[in-house]
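Backbones bend. We report:
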Amino acid sequence: MLTKADNDLLCRTDAGTPMGEFFRRFWLPALIPSELPHADCDPIRFRILGEDLIAFRDTNGKPGFIQNNCPHRGASLFFGRNEEAGLRCVYHGWKFDVDGNCVDMPNEPAESDFKHKVKAQTYPAVDYAGLTWIYMGPPQKQPPLPEYQWCARPDRDQTTISKWMQDSNYAQALEGNIDSSHVGFLHKTFSHPTFRSGGRLENTQQVTATRETDFGFVYGARRNAPEGDFYWRVTTYALPTFTQIASQSRAGNGIFVIPRDDETHWWFTVRPPALPDEPQRRDPGFAGILDGSAIADPATLGLIPGTWRRVRNKDNDYMIDRQMQRTYNYTGLPGNRAQDQAVTESMGAIFDRSTEHLGAADTAIIVMRRLLMRMAGRLQDGNEPEIVNHPEWFHTQPMDLTSEEGDFQRLWDQHERAFKASVAAQR
C-alpha cells in the first residue's frame, strides 16, 4: 500500500507537481492525424497534464499547441481564425504563430512595437510515426524524439493508432497493463480447455520476476509447460508509460496512458503493420482467454460522436450482459479494452492506495510505482532522467515463448542480446 503522500506523488501531474514535471521531460503522444487533417484546418481544444490548450495546423502544415486564453483579454483561441501561418483571436484580432510570437496587433498604432513584447505560451509539436507529439518541459532541455520500436521502422507512418479518453487517473490503467495475473480472471472465456476440464486457469501464472533496465523495467510471468519446459510472458515498460504486452506480434505494438488531468487520461494503442517474416506464435494454454476479437461488436471500441468517450462507459455500466457473463465469458463484456476500462474506472477517479493489500502477484505494480516516484524525486533534486537523451533506449521488444530456461535473468539477457544484434544488423 502507499501512504496518502506517496499516492499524491504518483497520481498528481499538474504543472509544478513532481510527477507532472517528470512527465514534462518527455515527448508525449497527443493527437492522431485525423484531429488536424490539413493546413489551416479548424483549431481544436486539447487537455493534457491538467493544461487546457488549443491545437492547430498552420498554413505551412506545421502543428502547434498554444494556450487556451488569448494573452490580450483572455478570450479562448478555440474561436480563432486559422489563417496565413497563424491563429488570429476573433475578439481584437491579435494573431500568434505556432511558436507563440504575436505577428499582428491591428488595434495598436502602426509605429508601436508592443506586439514584440507579447508572447503566448506554446509547446513544441511534431508529426512523427503516425502521431502528433508534444513537449512541455524546459525549452533548453528539449530532448530528441524517442525511438520506440515502431518509430524506427521505415513504414512507421502506416501505423494504426487508436485513441480514447478514460475516466480515472492514469496510474490505474497503467497498473492494469503490467498485471499478468488478472488475465485468467478478467479476460477468461468459458471455451478454454483448462476450464472445460475442471481446472483453475486463474492459478496458471505462478512465478513472477522483474528487472530494472535503462528504459524502465521488464516483468516476466512464468508457468509450467509440457515436457518440463516453462511458458514465459514478458512485458516491457518504457518510461514514462509505454507498455508492450507479450503477444503474437514482434512489430512494436504497445499502449500509452497519458494523463489528461488527475482524474482522466488518454489511452493510445499502437499497431504497426506486421513484420513480413513474423511467425505466428500462440500459447496453447491461453487459447480462448483473450476474446478481444471473439465478438464483432461496434460498440466495443466505438466512440460517442463528437467526444473521445467510448460508447461503453461507466454511465451505462459498460452495457454489461449478464447472460453473456453466465454462458460465454467471465465479465459479460466483449473485448479486453472494455473489460480493463470497467474495472479500472470502478476504483474511482483516484484510488486511495492506502486501503489496498498487495500480494506476490503485484510485484510489477510495486516496481512501477517505486520507479516513477524515485525518478520524480530525483528530478526534484536536480537529476534529469537520463533516458530522454538516449532515444535508442526506448527501442524494446517483449517476448512470449516456451523455453527450458527457468531463470528470468538469464532468459532476459539472452533475449536482449539477440534483439540488440538484430536491430544493429538492420541499421
